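pinging the channel bc i need a second pair of eyes. not urgent but kinda urgent?? the chain im working w is below, pasted from the shared doc
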Amino acid sequence: MLQRLLTSALIAGAAAGLIAALLQLVFVQPVLLHAELYEGGERTHFAAASDHHHGEEPAPESTGAQTEPAAEPGHAHGADEAHDHGEAAEIPGIGFDAGRDGLSILFSIMVYAGYGLLLVAAMALSENNGNRVTARQGLLWGIAGFVAVQMAPAFGLSPELPGMAAADVNARAIWWVATVIATGIGLWLIAFGKNWAVWAAAILLILAPHIVGAPHPHEFTGPTPPELAAQFAGRAIGVGLAVWTLLGLFAAWLWSRGREA
């Protein structure tokens, strides 16, 4: 049984991790690289752009950043801006760096292999209690894993871009781990509980980390535009949902196939 568990988990995790890495390279990494331009100073986000609507011109920054003159009528400002700032200031697209992206793919495979081990172990525990797991049910297992590991923590700590303000990393890590554990146990009790008392306890357990509250910085500052942060959070969560669903499907299919062999 141990060999079956390890085989199902590692194969499913490796496949899901590879898919996750590809989706991140296409959808998530361009937003991440775009944010790094703001973090490094190649681009500047002006939060006081609303002053233009009142007929007021923003005062020049005293931080050493140069202010560009207004474009003349008929002047193709976008073309000259790209020329002045060079390739580094252009919005990044889909690309591949052998060093950075290769390590990201390897790390993604390792992470989802670990998630696969946890998911298949939970499936094995469920079957020992008389609950047969099929490949179709694996979709629900994957969605439950996504809720526990990504959606519930993101409710308090959204995915963060470079340059965004954040609380102490240790406090965030403790809250994240506690949220994952509480949500996972709560979902298990909802799925296999037998009465309303168990279900009520499960709901309270899921809500507890959010009632306590996630650690946040005292001030929200940083060069990253909020629109870019929202796009990054949406894409990261969307990729997570797709990959966790596939992980549940792969793991349950391999697990059930090993049972029938």
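so Helices lie at 2-40, 77-85, 98-128, 135-156, 169-192, 196-212, 226-260. and The mean pLDDT is 82. — does that match what u expected or am i reading it wrong
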